[in-house]
Amino acid sequence: MMKLFKYSFLSLVLCLAIVSCKKDEPIPTTTVTNDGPTPYVIQIPKFFPTILNIPADNPMTVEGIELGRYLFYDGRLTGKVDTLMSCATCHHIDKSFENGIGYGYGVTGIQTPHVMLPMINLVFNSSGYFWNGKISASNPNEHNRTLEDVVYLGLTAPHELHSDSVSCKNAIQNIPMYPPMFKKAFGSDVVTFKNIAKAIAQFVRTLISADSKFDRYLRGEAQLNASELKGYMIFNTEKGDCFHCHGTVLFTTNQFYNNATDSVFNDPRDRFAITGDPKDHGAYKATTLRNIELTGPYMRDGRFATLDQVINHYSEGLVWSPYVHPLMKKINDGGIQLTPTEKADLKAFLHTLMDSTFITNPAFKNPF
Question: CA-to-CA distance for 304 and 301, rounded, in angstroms?
Answer without folding.
Answer: 8
